[in-house]
Structures are given as structure tokens and as C-alpha cells.
Amino acid sequence: MLLRTNETIENKTLKNFLTSHQYLIHDLQIDPTGTILVSSSSDNCLKFYSNKDSTWKETFTLELEENTNIWKLAWSPSTFGSVIAGVTFQNEVVIISQTFENGKLQWKQQTTVCSLPDSIQKISFSPDELGLVLGVADSSGILHIYHAEDPSQPDTWQKHSEIIVANTCLRAFDWGLQPNYPVMIITAAINRSVKIWKFCEEGLKWESVFNLGIELEVYDIVWSNFVGRDFHLIAISTEEALEIWKIEKLKNNSYQNIEKERIAYFTQINDSIWKLGWNETGNVLASTSNKGIVKLWKSNLLGNWSCISTITGNDDDDDDELELEIEN
Amino acid sequence: MISNSIPKQLRLSVTESINFNWEQSGGLLLFSTQRPILEKTKRLSIKNSSINQLKWDSLILSSTRKFYSQSHGIFLSLQKLSAKLKLEKKQKQSTILNLQLNLNLNERLNKFQSDLVLISRQYRAVLTEYLVSLSQKSKRDPNLVDEANLIGLAVMLWHLCEIIFIDQTVYVTAREPLSNWYLYHFSMNNNSLRQNIFQTNNSRNDKKNKKIQKQNKLMKKQNLNKIDLIQVLQSALVGDFEQVFFFIEQELSEIKKSPNMNKSLIKIIKFIKSELSSCPRDFEISNTSDSVERLKKWQRECQQKIERLPEFNISYDNSISLLIKNWKELLMIFAGDFDVIRQYSQNWIEFLIANVLWIKPNLTIKELPLLVEQCRKEFINTEDTPTNEIIMMILKNSPIKVIRMIETLIASPWLSAHLIDLLYHSKIIDSQKITYNGLDLREHYLIEFCQRLINCNDMFITTSSYLKQCKTVGRSYIELFLKREKINSDNYAKKLINICNKNDLYKSADRIKNTRAIQLLQTNNNVQALIWLISIDPIRRKNVLINRTVDKILKNANDLSDLDILVNSISSVINEKNSSYQSDLFNYLSKYSKITHLFEKGQLQKGAQIIVKLIETRTLPKQFWLTILNDIAKLISLQDEIIFDKHGTFVIMNFLEQITTFEHERETLLSIDNSQIQKIRFLLVKNLGKSLIY
What does the similarity note say (chain B) (predicted)? Predict the structure, then answer.
């Protein structure tokens, strides 16, 4: 009797599809419903793909305005329709969304939300509880928050608030949500401070409520979806290790004496993780490192986290011809 | 069936850093990229900008959907049965002195036990049906072979769990159910033959039984190649009488045809045949102890006859000696000879079955764990497969370990979830005592299964039905999964809202309404969008968006008829929730609906009075100034009779002066040119004159 194990035949689970981008893909993002994929590249285009029979097929190419090479993308929550924010190499944040023209919905570059003097490190839309809100972290240590009053109108984007996190580069941030509580943000600056902020309606400002006390440089930080658990899970990649933190859920509207515990610690030797991502239900964590290794992490029934899968790149492949162009 | 194997090691042909993104369906998209955070513009060109899609839940066939629906139906009926029994128990507690009620409850409990067995068999039946379908499809598509094997494994394990955990009250000894289980799942015959055996065991139709038995015989003749005696010895171990008798007949006919037939051999084979014919085979459930006694008696007599039969003790030339030795061993197996049974058992499971059949026929299911240990010791040097380990845990009556091993070794969320649910309702496990991250085990496995199920298209409603049974976190997961549902139509939005309302997820219901409204706004279906927007709970309603939508409608509304459509469409909503609509906008719309109605009836003056009151009380929203002024102008110019009296005309004139004088209010009338304002002024003056005179 053939037994099912955790090993799978390689070809069965891995599909490859070519895009028509002329250059390397900078970023790839899927909308919250999982039906539209968008990719950006230095060819000044965004490519859109739809999901049919579990396969992605290219459906549309949007040529952006001149000098609008987008290197980072983010989708808004599906409540607000299809809205994408993109960061350009000129430190601008642009909005791309669908408009109804000639009897059908078309993708269009709508507006520029902001143009910052310092380089943008990360963008991310907030949970829809706050409305159509976009966070933009820059290298001056400020987290700028922008808000669109009318999601259907691109010209209603304006500055909502900002958090002056540090006077050094703000590397990473993420949104956190617990039902019946204000939306929270966790930030990680290069000066080794990892803080949680909550939004105060009075005064429309953000207040620091909690410090994780991490004394190392943080490269990325991600907050998993809170799906009815008694605690929050936050994954942090530092210069030394990958850490997973468990923070007890908020009770009685109090942010004092919140219990925190580091439940996993994986040392990275001669390598560092630059990106993390939780799956939708927050029980599997993916990471990718400088050495080009993608790993998946999960906990067992006893609560012990371990690496359950590794995906590596093959450096010996001669099929891809790499050309390098550098423009200063 | 969902196979959620996450590959341990994969290699991609890339030369840059790998970036990733999660797919909603539980897969990963991987692509080569450069590190972010570049200070200067750099461009890397590469011949192939490809994306790798890593999926581990991709097998969704039409038969898979059917399987999900069927098993879902069984799952729901089990929950209902269990809930009904709980209710009856509560009633019993409240009237504890009522003996009649107690008696009824005992009957009820017995009935529930038999219902559980029925449900377990229903699960097995749908699994088997799915297995057959997959097996047929795998002949054309080799990718389905793994999945088919997994289902076969699931059927086998489920059957054993049913015997050991669910059905244990029926069987006095382990003999019959275990041997049937082993024969069905591990015999050498093909799938369709096994199916027929299954049908024969369960069918109550005699005619159908006979037909199936005929088919069995035909298939055996067609499918079975020449089997050797060693294989038959192994069949004897597990009580496969049909195989043994078939072989005996085959050998007898061959020997008879042979010119050098050995008379002793023929005599031995005939002797064995007659002995086996008198061997007690089927044990009556109602009278097991007698059946055991009869078997033991037969075994004693058989052993004595073996010792006395001269043909067994004569020495022959080598080949015949060996043959006769094997034939003797065949009979000795049935007679319960330990050494022979041990010699021919290939693994501890076979040895166990043989023990239960021939050495310890009166062994009960409860006594199995000890025998399992003894049998395993006999095969201590042989490596156990993961399947055998799970079988061992089942036989040792360790349901929690079984579930955990199924999760880690087979990775089948469907099997883990449905099995633990059945065991939970059977009171075999108290999953609340064992928790994982705050969830009891049953909920944990149900959630794991739902996370896979939701990745299949159009499975949200089924998934939410499962999640509803998870009291702790089910609701949160429904809320989470709702966010990713693609709402393509009003009907689907309504279905989802219905689910939200049933689960008290009112916020999510409003989110869906908002999403649908925005979708409609994007395609310029403004009236429909407004209907969705105003149906949102006032606490969460976005008045800014509503006002903009109304503006859009008004801009596109060229004549009165467009406004009528708007009012008619939302009038039912306004009427239902009249008291909660405090804003001037909706107040106006409801009044406007009334005004239109009065005008249709010809009650123009009454309608005019309401218009005047709206203007006087300053409750007329800005968006409707132009409309109202145009309406007034039309009424005055088209009607000979006086519609607006002097007071009314004066109010309107005053209003017009105010809105044309103040700059910020004049902006509202930008679309109207001065000549039109002059025209309205003229008409008003004319009307004032008329009203003063008459």
C-alpha cells in the first residue's frame, strides 16, 4: 500500500509561467480575493493576470507614465474595489485603479498620493476598519499615513496623520488588528526600536503603547491575522535571527502590562532574512533570505516552531543570460 | 480529497534572490528579483522573467466536489443527531424522577450508537465511491494515482477505526470484523472484486447476493493466474476460504489430467478439502461462544487426523515430499498450529489476523492491544511502515495518537477532521481536554480542513457551515474568509449577507454591502450602488460616499423620470427604516416620493404645499435645489390654475434670492445660467401677481 508522506513529486506541485516583462520583476502582488495578480518591472509597465483553473494568465498591460518605474506594490482591501498603490524609483507613491470607460473596466494610473524627499522603504494598506488608508515608511524615520475620503474618487487622497518613529531609517512596519479595538501599527527602525502604536481618535494621532524591547537591527516585521486566538503572532527578522513573538490579546481596553513571549528563535548564520510573510490564516510563515532561500515555518501540536520546507535557487543554471546595466 | 503535502525540498532555476507572495488559495508565487531599497536606479535585464507557482492543493475534480458535498451532508446530519440527543439529556435532567423518560432515554442512547455506526458506514461509502471514481480516472491521468492511493488508505484506516472505536459494542470477538477488514483491503484480488465482497457483506437482497457471487467466481477465473501453494498458505492465514477452495479445485483438476498423477497427493488434497468443508467459518454474533467451541473442537479433531493420516508420514522423493509438507501445513494453519502460522506470516499484521482467526478465536476487541504487542515482538527486526504504525495505534485503542499520526504521516485534513469529529460525538475522545493554541483538538482539525476547503472555488458556503460547528473561533474564520470572497453579483452578495446575519457578523455584512456598492459605482450603476449604501447600518454608513453618489445620480438625471426611478428604488428601504433616517437627504427623498405621488393623483396644490414647507424649514438639501426650482417653474408655466399661493410664492422668491446672492451657495447653481434664473424669477413674479388677484 502506497503511503502518503510529506514528500511530493516535484513536477506535480511546481508550475512555471513566463511573463512578457522585458526586465526583472521588481514586485508581484495578488489582490485580497486571490483573482488578480499584478507585476511591476523596469519596463515601465504593470502586467495584470487573472486566475483561471488555478493557472495565471496575462490579461492586460498598463503602460505607466514616463519615469514611473514601480518597484513596490500594494493592494487595498477588497472593500474599496481594485486599488493598487505603487512606489516609484523617484520616491513617489502612485495610485492605479479601475475606471469604467467604453463600457468596460480599465486599469488606469490615477493620481500621485505623495512625493517624498527620502527614499521609501515600505508601503502597506491598513485593514479596512480605518477606511482606505495607506502607510508609507521612509528612510527619515517617519511613517506617513494617507487617506482617501472617497474610494471611488482618486482626487480625494490626502494626508491623514504621521508617526515620527525615529530619526533614523524606518525599515519596516505592519498593521495589527483585534476586533473592537483601534487599529495598531508595529514599527521597526534602524535604531533598534520596535514599537506598537495605537490610533487616538481625539487629536487624530498615534500613541506608542508598547515596546518589544528588541535590541538588534530589524530587517522586516509582519503581524499575522488575528483569527480568534487568545494572542497575536508577530514575526521579526533581525540581523542575527528569525524571531516569532506571541503577544497576549488586549483585554479591558488596557494596553498596560501586556504579556509578551518569544516563542521561536532561529539563528541565521552568514545569511539574513529580508522579507517575511504570513499566510492568510497566520499559521504558516514564509521567509526569504539574501542567499536566495525561501523557507516555510510552522508550529506543531506542541507549539514548537520549525522549518517545514525549503526552496532554493540553482546557481549552476546556464540557461538564463544575465545582463547588467547600471544607471547612476 | 485534499492532499496538503508541503514539499520539503524544491529547486528553482534562478540566479537572483528569490521573492515570494502568498496566494489566497494557499500556494506561493516565487520570482527572482533584486533586493529592495536601492538608493540609485539600477536595471537588471534578464531573458526570462518568469514566475513559479507552488501549489499543494490542486486536485479538484468534479468527483472531488461531489465527495465534499456528500461528506458535508453526513457531517451535518451527525451534528444534528448529537444536538438532538443533548437536548433530550437536558430534558431528562430536569425531570429526573420520571422513569418512563429515563427508559426512553436509554433506548435513545442505544439508537444513537447504532446511528453513529450508520454514519461511519456512510462516510466509508462516499470514500469508496470517490476511490472508484479516482481509480478509473487515474488510468487516463497518472497524476491521480497518488491521490487514489491516499483515498484507498483512508478507506482502510476508517474501516478499522469503525471496528475498533465505533462498532465495538456489536462484536463479541475480534475475529469476524478483523478478518473481513483484512480480506477486503489487503487481499490479492482486484478492486472490483473487493467492491463486490463489500456489497455482499452489506446487501440484504438475496437475489443480488447470488448475482454478485456468480460474478465473483467468473472474475476469479478470469483474473487469477496460477497461484502457487505458498500464496495459498498466506491466504489461509487470513481466512480466505474462497481462495483456498478455488486453488484446491484447480489442483485437483490439473492432477487428474496429469499422466503421472500421484495417488497419495490426490488423497491428501481430497482429505484437506473435506476437512475444510466442515470447518466452522461464519460466527453467529448472537451465539459466539458456541461457535468458538465448535471451531476448537474441529481444530482438535483435525490435529488428531493429521497425525494419524498415513499419507502425511510416508517419505517420498524430494519434490513430492515438499509438496505434501506444504499441503499439511495448509491444514495445520486452520488447525491453529503456532509455528506454522508464524513461519508463513510476512508481517505482524498478518500474524495478528491469523492469531485472532485460528489460535485465539475468542479474543475480544478489548484484549487486542496485548496481542498486538506480542505479535510485534515476533517481528521486532522488521521495519514498520508508517501505515502499519497507524494500524497499530488503532488496534491499541489510542485514538488521539491515531489522529496525530494521520496528520503527520499521511497529511490528510479531511480524514483527520471527520474522524476526530465522529470520535468526539461517540464520546471516544474528549477533545476539550487536549488543546492546541487555545483550541480543542476537534476544532483545530476542523479549522485545518476548512483552510484547505476554502481554497477550492465556490466552497465558501460549505466551509462556513463547517466553521459554524467550531464554537471558539469559527466565527472569526468566517469573517476572515469573507474578506477574500469575490462578489460578482447582487445575488451572491445577498447569500453572503445571509450567512453573516446567521452568524451575527453584522459588520461583515455591511462590508459586503459597501464592497458591492463600490463595484456598482465603478460601472456607473449609481442607483443600485445607492440602494446598497443606504442599507448599511447607520453607524457604519459613509455619508460622504452616499452624498457623492446622489450627486452623480442627479448630474446624470436629465429629467424628472430619472429621479422617479431613484425614489421608487429606494422608497421601500426608506419606508422600512424610516425612523433611523434623520438626515435631510433622506427626509427629502421620502417627501419627494410623496410629492410625486400627489402630482400623479392630480393633487397639485397639496404637493406644492409640501415643496414650500421643505424650502421654509431649510431641510431641502443642496443637491435638489435645481431640481425643485425646475419643478416649480414647470408647474407654474404649464398649469393655468394657481398651484402656489401668495405665501408659498413669496417663500420661493425669498429662497431664490438667498441662494443667488451668497457666493458659496451660488456655486450650487453654477450649471444653470442667468437666463434660466431670470426665467424662474419671471414666472414667480407672474404667479405672485395671479395669487394676489385671485
Answer: Belongs to the nucleoporin Nup85 family.
